[in-house]
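Narrative summary of target 7.
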Amino acid sequence: MNITIPDAVLQENKIVEAELKQEIAIFLFQTKKLNLVQAGNLAQMDENQFQDLLADRQIFRHQDTDELKNSISSVQRKKSPLPRSVGMGSSGMGDLSERVDELLWQE
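Modeled conformation, tokenized:
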């Protein structure tokens, strides 16, 4: 689908094509018509760039259950080992990196 917007409208409001695409993508994302990847594609940005744009505008990302599960799985696949803690500190506990799943991923 093509939408025609008169150049005069864009020029009068000092809007460039890339900015207009971003605004439309943000609107469709906020109204849950597009997911994060689709909106980023419409804005001609990669997922990280689009997330940064949303963060700059203090727009929070919404995810359905499947998207959240996919995000968690993606992070877990990329998960690099946590650094070992040095010493026991005042907690009296040793290396907490070995207990990361127990401490952070409780249902």
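The two ends are 44 Å apart (CA to CA).
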